[in-house]
Amino acid sequence: MAIKKLFIKNYKSIENMVIELNGDVNIFVGENDSGKSTILEALSIITTSRLNGFSFEKQIKANMFNQSIREKYIDSLVNGQCIEVPPQIIIEAYLDIEDQTYAGSNNELREDCPGIRMELSLNVEYETAYKKMLKNREIYDIPVELYAVSYHYFSSEPVVYRFAPVKAVFIDTTRKDYSYMMDRFVSDNISTYLNLREQTDLSTAYRKSRHSFQENNIVKQLNDLVRKNVKMNNKEVTIDLRENEVEEWKHQMSIMVENIPFENLGFGTQNAIKIELAIKNSKEQIDLVLMEEPENNLSYTNMVKLVKHVLESKGKQVFISTHSSYIANKLDLGKLFLLRDGNIKPMSELSEDTKNYFIKLPGYDTLRVILAEKVILVEGPTDDLIIQRAYLDKYGKLPIAHGIDIIVVDSLAFKRYCDIAVMMNKKIVIVTDNDGNIQKNIIDKYGEYMKKNNLVFFYELDETLNTIEPSVLAVNCVDGKPSDDFKEAISKKGSMKSKDMQDILHFMKNNKAEWALRVFDSNKKINYPEYINNAIKEYN
To answer: How are strands ordered across the β-sheet holding 288-292?
Structure first.
């Protein structure tokens, strides 16, 4: 069983979204507040009727509604408009399942297929009260106290989650809430390795231990004092252990990992075990595993193990929100969904060439351009160092302090990153050499991208200055002679002070990263080409 499509309307950052899902692994990446967690929450609500471990209907707040929709509703109230139907939140899961018992067209897309629909809307029982409150101007925001939650299959039959065809577990590595999973692990192993007689003996032993506690002299002494000194409703009071259910003894057992109680393990190790248990759990027939940033508190070794567990999982649909390029690369970039401002784009929409480039990309920096707040792409480490120093000289701080990530990219890959920027409508600044021919190497090469408002190109306009070396040298020369400050900036123990322009240019071309590093570390300020000055001003 899998969810082939998810529909979300008016929930948090998402106003209206349809996601065509992968049957095995789905990876959601994006900046903070882009909608990753919102999607996982929607999946949890529609498959379990719960949010953060508690009933969704007991957590309803006005701020759960999409902010834009909420503001429009509030504005309409202020303007005295008659709003007969206040906003709804709708979540639908379109199921890939053979059983047609759950099939119908009671869904937003009017598709005849199996599925589950959650609707949070005005309770019909309160329609009269709502209209009266509207008329009397007693409503100032979405009246969630008048709302009700309903869960139905697309066949219109109500959902009873205990018997629902889809079972899900939500793993939030930011929360220390393991009781359910640990209880399940203990119970499963007891059922697997002990027969009924042995389980009964264990239960009896537990009850004997409870009785021993009750008969302890200190407990008796405590109760004698309580009887004498405390009355409730003029009745005698004593203290005892709570009455419990037949199998309560199982819930009092815990897991020891190499003789260390599970509760005393490090957070990262707890998360790793928790994830492994969830993925391997076939006893409960878990269909969906939802993971919120599983890399939290995990070492590199544990991330490798996590990826192994996911790849080896069979018959489970996995949903992961992550900031980890390692996890994204290893689990298949083709299963990636890019999120920005409540909108989503699958990596599969990229051209095959671009998609294959990122899938084969060595290292794990694939997501940097997606997750960075602001991006400047450069051709090499020389450009990186010079732009960073130029920014520091102008603004007194390095670019990263203002949320600008400078990413070194082979010029042949500029188009690949531009494709992602276009798909996500994300602004990117590109700084490139003209290589001696602006028309051929820039206009013709990047013409279709230069028309996009979110892609900004900067390059040297003088074709005789074909790379950053002659370009930087030119603005630091007077009458063909390099300035003393520039010579000192690129010198090591005065090595450049006696050199002329040609010698210095030769050194710069043959020692690209070295001269740039010397400039970056120097206490002398130099001049920068106009295109670099313009590039560092683009985000300010």
So the answer is: 168-172, 288-292, 317-321, 25-30, 336-340, 343-346
